[in-house]
């Protein structure tokens, strides 16, 4: 009887952990973008970027920034290369890395 209870509790814990892992999956995206807007509400800061250079459709993306010094250095109408992660459950995009994109022809 005691073994059955331990088995059932173990199964419930495994199911809960598996569900949490599925819900909290992150994907990462890196692309060349142009900043078209930046805004904040209290301590929440974000930029709106146009990443149509990587796809054929116009797609504006809202990327949240959690460091005010980075947010202050970002300029409108400039091109950047940025990496952001997206939570598959909340669909909130969080900035991981940003760098200035130079307009030059580079061969790889």
Write the layout of secondary structure elements.
Elements: H1 2-23, E1 26-41, E2 44-50, E3 60-65, H2 68-73, E4 79-87, E5 93-100
Antiparallel strand pairs: 1-2, 1-4, 2-3, 4-5
Features:
108 residues; 5-stranded antiparallel β-sheet; 26% helix; 2 helices; alpha+beta; single chain; OB fold (Dihydrolipoamide Acetyltransferase, E2P); 5 strands
- Distance between termini? 66 Å
The major pleated sheet works out as:
5 strands, antiparallel
Write the H/E string, N to C: HEEEHEE
Can you give the mean pLDDT? 84
Strand order of the largest sheet: 3-2-1-4-5
CATH class of the domain at 26-100: Mainly Beta
Task: Kindly provide the radius of gyration, computed on alpha-carbon positions and rounded to a whole number of angstroms.
Answer: 20 Å
Number of helices: 2
**CATH level 4 superfamily of the domain at 26-100:** Nucleic acid-binding proteins
CATH topology of the domain at 26-100: OB fold (Dihydrolipoamide Acetyltransferase, E2P)
* CATH architecture term of the domain at 26-100: Beta Barrel
Low-confidence stretches: none
- Strand runs, count: 5
Strand content: 35-45%
Structural class: alpha+beta
How much helicity do the residues have? 25-40%
- The shape, in one word, is elongated
Transmembrane segments: 5-23
Keywords: Membrane, Transmembrane, Transmembrane helix
